[in-house]
Design goal:
Elements (H helix, E strand, L loop, with lengths): L6 E7 L5 E7 L3 H5 L5 E8 L10 H19 L4 E9 L2 E8 L2 H12 L7 E7 L4 H7 L8
Antiparallel strand pairs: 1-2, 2-4, 3-5, 3-6, 4-5
Helix pairs in contact: 2-3
């Protein structure tokens, strides 16, 4: 299976009406159906939002560096695949599907070692049917080209 680096952008709103930017990964049907990536892991970083709900530029730059580090280490042997990134309303959420939560945790520590302590929380649950991904993927029809 070849991992695509095709992404789309869409807009949505959270429960309180804040605008959320969705960066969704395209062309993952083979990974979704293979049955190996059963665990969904969400990494959430809460921040003080500006008037539009976005992070300050310095925080956004740090988030970008963290995102690159996470994607590089998790996807090097397809331990985990980043499928979506949600930004807005005072939080950024990275969504991964993984083969192993314990190994993901080890790699997470490795990826984040160069950074100072970050204000993140981690949530994991089984999602064998990739329900979160399929829900997010429906937003593709509202993408911003």
């Amino acid at each position: 299976m070849k991992l695509s680096d095709e992404w789309f952008t869409a807009l949505s709103e959270n429960e309180t009406g804040d605008m959320i930017t969705i960066l969704g990964r395209d062309e993952l049907s083979e990974f979704a159906s293979c049955g190996k990536l059963k665990d969904r892991i969400e990494i959430t970083w809460r921040y003080d939002p500006d008037q539009k709900g976005m992070p300050a530029s310095s925080v956004g730059e740090l988030m970008e560096a963290v995102e690159v580090a996470l994607q590089k280490i998790m996807e090097k042997d397809k331990l985990a695949i980043m499928t979506a990134v949600y930004t807005g309303g005072g939080e950024k959420i990275w969504i991964f599907y993984s083969r192993s939560v314990p190994v993901f945790g080890e790699r997470l520590n490795e990826a984040l070692a160069p950074f100072k302590l970050l204000p993140i929380t981690i949530y994991a649950e089984q999602d064998e049917g990739w329900e979160e991904y399929l829900d997010m993927y429906e937003m593709k029809e509202w993408r911003q080209d």
